[in-house]
Amino acid sequence: MNQVVRALASEEKLLNFYNIVLFDEITERLEMPKKIDLLLIEGSTVTREQEEVVKKFREISDFVVAMGTCAVQGGVQALRIGDDIEKVKAYVYPNPEHIDVNKDVKPVDNVISVDMFIPGCPVNHEAIASLLKKFVSEGLPIAIPESVCSECKRKGIVCVMVAYGIPCLGPITISGCGAICPSFGRGCYGCFGLKDFDLDNSKLKMFAQQLKDLGMDNDRFEQTVKAYSWKTWSKYQNVYHR
Amino acid sequence: MERVLTRVEGEGKVLVKVKEGNVIDVEIQITEAPRFFEYIVRGKHINNVVEIVSRVCGLCGVSYMLTATRAFEKCLKIDVPQEVEELRRIIHLAERVKSHVIHVFLLNLPDFLEMPNSFRLGAVNSAMLRNSMKLLTLAVNIMDILGGRTHNVVNIKIGGVYKPPSESDAVKIVKLIKDAIELFKPLADFVLSLKNIPEEKLAKPLMILHGNGYPHVSDEIAFYNSENAEIFDVQNFENVLDVMQRPGKTALLYKYKGQSYIVGPFARFNTSYDRLHGEARDFVSSYGWKPPLKDVRQQIIARVAEILDSLLTLRDFFQNYKPFEIYSPRIEPAKADKLRCVAAVEAPRGILYHRYDIDEKLKVLHCNIITPTAQNILAMEELSQEKLRMLGRAAEHEAAKLTERIVRAFDPCISCSVHVLSSKY
Ligand code: SF4
Ligand code: SF4
Predict the structure, then answer these.
(1) Which of B27, B156, B298, B303 could in theory staple to B293 by disulfide, Cβ–Cβ 3.0 to 4.6 A?
(2) Which residues form the NADH:ubiquinone oxidoreductase-like 20kDa subunit domain (chain A) (predicted)?
(3) Rounded to a whole number, what is the distance in Å from the CA of A183 to chain B's nearest CA?
């Protein structure tokens, strides 16, 4: 909610163009219209009920955006995928039988068709503001597919991997954050998600080896990638898996 | 009757049971699906854990990172120089400002104005809406400089921070803070002058982190029932609390010596008013607001005081700030095959407690997190029941709405309370 509110706060007039009909964290429920022009979905689905809600809203919405790493990739909760859900429940709950949760964590496009993806954990509020501004004039922001490294280069940020030997996931991570971590002298941990272009299993494997040489063992690399890139990573993992 | 909780962080419901016109039970239900944080951090390296737990809450990620890093630093005996620790607390206070600004102006204020949301404010008082949005922008700009972004900040690590702000950052921040204070005072004036803030007696015992200054970071906890404080070490927190789970429900409820209690701004203000920044104290008291606040729905006053207190503390800090060298202690493997790592901080909503057991390779074996909202839920329910009983039959139709307002006064973070469940082993 932070980032959407921030996007709305960034441009006074935006609020004149949008009638926010459903946003429980900000407004009491108002009367629901039959049609929604723009639907922003945050989060992944983990229950059947959530899937039904998402499907219902897809039906009445013109344009659907999966917003944030959870919606796009699955999110950190995807770290439990592959483990026995009964064990997961039993670890946390004294009465696991009452907890109704699927064994999978589904990114939104595993449930419905999605018209646009805005990754990020959290999303960059400027991307949301840009969408909200362009959408009112029936346009869309232009997505330029590149890695975080390109943002470093454009901003003249010293490469932490080259200069200081700090492991950095920037080369395999989709751009959009503005290279925040390198600008603080630390490596990227991939919170915007893996690129799903210019990358394949052998490149990933080679890259993992590079990071290992710099001190990030494969286990930590995998944990990090899985936490923020479940969907894309799972496409690669069968070959990549040790 | 049932009502979806809106204008809170996360998904929940209030359920009011009415029999023959009288309220017999009030329950706050957490409907958000669990994300199993205590489970997913298992087997993860402590550096990854700091980033992962930051994702528990959409509003107070810094509190999570600070609690986790402090827990790991204490058990691994990693020294954090005073100036580094100070800076981290300052980043944490910047988050307190942001979180409270959102709560006061976007979530809570509409209750006093009988509006469904604060965007409607534009129609009656456009300056008020514009300026509160501007204030939010200033607050997040301060966080951007200090933390890289507002949410899941990147500038906190075990052992300190990645990059101390530069001298020119400090100048920018001082300017932002001065603008923020100037913008805030008239907005605060509006809130502090509201005539319809209830002031019945509606409260419970209080719990805070006990230290030298206004409650913030400490290893001691104080429980206040009336004037007397019982003080205990944070290491004993899990032992002194009774944990209950309702059959079939996901949220756990906490009691101290058989009683529900309150954490957060209401508890901090009422126990530690004297330790607020002098200017903040003068400001709120000039409107006649002094402790003890009697009614939990007056928490908005405590938040206004805390916003100003934090802004002034930030201003004082950056006016005298000298950048320091980046400090990166080596994190050595643990000397034992099982270490217990415990810490707590005053998150915007109250005491946040983390416990991690880690192995010698610095991977988490077990984790338990006790969040402010989980501690407050029982108080929210009991206070709602008390209030509704007082009103008797008259409350029937308004019951759910009234409860929602009491809940909202607490600023609950439901996405944090949902996974705050015991890890039994
Ligand atoms: S610091 Fe990281 S993201 Fe930036 S150029 Fe180097 S490898 Fe790429
Ligand atoms: S982890 Fe990577 S993608 Fe995320 S903010 Fe840092 S640099 Fe950007």
Answers:
(1) B298
(2) 14-134
(3) 8
